[in-house]
Amino acid sequence: MFNKFINQMTNANNKEERRQRVGILSGRVGLVSNLFLFVIKLIAGLMSGSISIVTDAMNNLGDSASSVITLFGFRAASKPADKEHPFGHERSEYISGLIISIIIIYVGLQFLSSSFNQIMHPTPLNTSALVFVLLIVSIVIKVLQGQFYRKMAKEIQSNTLQNSAQDSINDVYITTMVLVSSLVETWTGWQIDGYAGGLLSLFIIYSGIQAIRDSIDDLLGKRPSKVEIRQMKDLLDQYDNIVGYHDLLVHSYGPNQTFATIHIEIDDSWNLTRAHHLIDCIEEDFKHKLGVELVCHLDPIAIQNEHDTAIYRQVKAILKDFNLKFHDFKVEHQTILFDIVLPDNPQLTDDALFMQIEQKIHEQIGNYEVKIIFDRLDLLKEV
């Protein structure tokens, strides 16, 4: 029943429109539920005089503000590309996530101060059965809210909604701690409300810092996952008529705006028409199967030339001793040119490595001029 309702509410003609509808629905549900939680917790906090309950209530008010920002973020992200923003506006979703994180930290700092005052000047609580009932109801609502956010985040692969889901689960722990501290103080008389509020405030601040880090990573542009790289590599491996590929670079301008470039090695005896048809097929496969806008660069390789092939094998054997991969191999007169894919933490400097490789080539192949480009950006080296 629940899944059917969600599908009806978010039914759309395309992936981008569905993403917008899911995001907006999530923002509206979050806004209404968090405002309701704020009201009942504020009532419980004022009735009991508990700083930890009031802190928890204000945390839900901050969640309501976050839901409003989520609404605006998804609306802005759905705007089509324009002259000033040719790659669209989908990173607006990341900006909304960053603003939400800042609000979370601000709320945490404000109530850390209030909790400290409660510790220094404790006042007894005035709890009742109604206060405990309100807290239990709020825990149930937050559990349901977290499940809803998690389903929506999975539906559209949204880090913003995933953060909201985690925040809801955190709130379950927070309100449970508030409930337990209130029960302890009611039953034992130990005035621990300020300490509970302080712990909650620190937890809120920590979650805000974590969320800021995730949002900044998205805005700066983070590397694709190994699963995504493996999918691209598996797709390229289906083309038996290419010699090889390298220098994969991926750029993301939002959840549905991924661009990539790659160098495709082909037999240099091919004519331009055949080569162009091949890369058109590869780019079309990336678009329809992976949703990636790929641009291919052609690298002709002289695989039919026996002299060059013999040198290639000798260079390959030399570099194997260094545990290095290479590409873009060419022999031009008395010059050998190639790129080396460096590991993340090379043991030698570029100059020292070049000198050792050059010496090996002179000893084993001949007096060739050696030109090497050291490549650190190729994502394929990890898979």
From TrEMBL:
Domain of life: Bacteria
InterPro entries cross-referenced by the UniProt entry: Cation_efflux, Cation_efflux_CTD, Cation_efflux_CTD_sf, Cation_efflux_TM, Cation_efflux_TMD_sf, CDF_Transporter
Chain ranges of the Cation efflux protein transmembrane domain: 29-220
Pfam families: Cation_efflux, ZT_dimer
Membrane topology label: Multi-pass membrane protein
Family the entry assigns: Belongs to the cation diffusion facilitator (CDF) transporter (TC 2.A.4) family.
Protein name, UniProt field: Cation diffusion facilitator family transporter
Species this protein is from: Fundicoccus ignavus
